[in-house]
Automatic annotation (TrEMBL):
This is Hydrogenase maturation factor. GO terms for molecular function: thiamine-phosphate kinase activity. GO terms for biological process: thiamine biosynthetic process. InterPro entries: Ni_metllenz_mat, PurM-like_C_dom, PurM-like_C_sf, PurM-like_N, PurM-like_N_sf, ThiL-like. The lineage of its organism: Archaea, Methanobacteriati, Methanobacteriota, Archaeoglobi, Archaeoglobales. Residues 105-216 form the PurM-like N-terminal domain. It comes from Archaeoglobus sulfaticallidus PM70-1. Residues 228-378 form the PurM-like C-terminal domain.
Length: 450
């Protein structure tokens, strides 16, 4: 429970004494405290919120768009989420990066002398808070995947763990064990990190969140934008990661979980490196962001090429036990993260890739690249249909099915509000940067006068 957020909302709806009483009751219930202790806690929270909001300050304030994260689908790997990520690139602006957020790859790239440095970070799956080990295992694998698909070999991993005030300390250790299980298997060390509480004293409960980052190095890069006409698309068999595990947990199909505990993807990439094939491959990606639906549209957008998939061949690239679960639950396998390695390369190179990768995992030729724009799928009718992400990724838990995947009727109106928020953020950044630069200039001038 976010105490600070609760007070900010409630103090606008009821008098302060009522807010204090209600908040103290909630605190006592969650913490198991007596009323007097809970009241003191509530009084302190209210005082802090009142003091923080007592004055106006352009640095602390931010433009309120009126659009909520969940309403717009942020984090749900669909249209709203993709739109926000493109807007993040606008706030960042121009940079010296070889590849940045605007290129729609999961890793960013800088160049140092003759080498490319790839950097990626992934957050743990929000529904794996109570399952620290598997949360750590899959987020680590995800961060490494993002570096591998850039054609880079991982060098080091770092982590950030946040556990709410009432969370058991052992969550930290179980989570680190999950992270380092992958590190040990692929011989890449966890070298640094941060461990904090979520919201300090202001958030009570047991929720855990955080992320894992990875840094890698290479002589070549394989970004999404490099897909070319005539290329073929290969997919390794994917057994899913955090998303598939979450589905298995919350539908009580726990026997599927173990299917995801592998490093097949990482070993497939290592086999490509070992055979010196990276320089021959145009693009690599991992099927995660809203599944094939989301990734295909992004690849098409940055490469300016049409991406075409054969439905049945893609279906064969899903682990049989995972596929059986998804189809039983009526979850579209093309709209969830199946964690397959996608390789886009010339046909003659594809044969070499398949030969190298099959030592560790099955790999299938599932599509091709052609002139045009957009993503398409061909089914058993041989009809080429548009392949588009939904507003949210395929609903893969009971709650997500209640929330649904439909685009809200006011999506365009919300998008305009988001655009205004982006504009305000950019202007605020410019204002503060100019102010600091002006101070530095004055200091430099004063130093010169001496």
């Amino acid at each position: 429970m976010d105490l600070e957020g609760f007070v900010r909302r409630m103090i606008k709806r009821m008098d302060e004494d009522r807010v204090k009483k209600v908040l103290a009751e909630r605190i006592a219930e969650i913490k198991g405290w007596d009323t007097d202790k809970a009241l003191k806690w509530a009084e302190a929270v209210i005082l802090e919120v009142k003091n923080a909001d007592s004055k106006s300050n352009y640095i602390l304030e931010y433009y309120r768009s009126g659009v909520k994260m969940g309403e717009f689908g942020v984090g749900s790997r669909g249209r709203g989420d993709f739109y926000v990520h493109r807007k993040i690139a606008e706030v960042i602006g121009d940079s010296s990066a070889v590849l940045s957020t605007k290129d729609l790859d999961d890793a960013g790239v800088m160049k140092y002398k003759d080498f490319y440095i790839s950097i990626a970070i992934d957050g743990i799956h929000s529904r794996l808070s109570e399952y620290p080990f598997i949360a750590g295992f899959h987020v680590t694998r995800a961060a490494m995947r993002d570096v591998y698909v850039m054609g880079a070999r991982p060098l080091a991993v770092f982590s950030d763990i946040h556990v709410a005030d009432d969370g058991d300390v052992s969550k930290i250790f179980d989570h680190i064990a999950g992270i380092t299980a992958v590190c040990d298997l692929i011989n890449v060390p966890l070298v640094s990190g941060s461990t904090l509480r979520i919201g300090g004293d202001m958030v009570i409960g047991e929720r855990m969140t955080g992320g894992v980052g990875c840094v890698g190095i290479s002589e070549h890069i394989t970004p999404r934008k490099n897909a070319r006409k005539g290329d073929v698309i290969l997919l390794t068999e994917g057994a899913g990661g955090g998303t598939v595990v979450t589905t298995a947990i919350y539908y009580g199909m726990h026997e599927v979980i173990e299917e995801s505990l592998n490093i097949d993807f990482l070993l497939a990439c290592e086999s490509i490196f070992k055979e010196n094939l990276v320089g021959k491959i145009h693009s690599m990606s991992d099927v995660t962001n809203g599944g094939i639906r989301g990734d295909a549209e992004e690849i098409s957008a940055v490469s300016k090429k049409a991406i075409v998939f054969d439905y049945e061949k893609v279906r064969k690239a899903v682990n049989p036990k995972v596929l059986k679960m998804l189809e039983k639950l009526e979850i579209d396998f093309m709209g969830v993260s199946i964690d397959s390695l996608m390789v886009i390369c010339p046909p003659d190179v594809a044969d070499e890739v398949k030969k190298a990768v099959r030592k560790f995992v099955n790999i299938h030729e599932v599509g091709w690249v052609e002139d045009g724009e957009g993503a398409f799928v061909i089914d058993d009718t041989a009809e080429k249909r548009p392949l588009k992400p939904r507003f949210r990724e395929s609903a893969y838990t009971p709650l997500k099915k209640v929330v649904g995947e439909q685009t809200p009727p006011d999506f365009e109106e919300m998008r305009e509000k988001v655009d205004k928020a982006v504009e305000h953020a950019i202007n605020k950044k410019k204002r503060i940067v100019e102010k600091i630069r002006s101070k530095l200039l004055n200091l430099s001038s004063a130093e010169s006068d001496r």
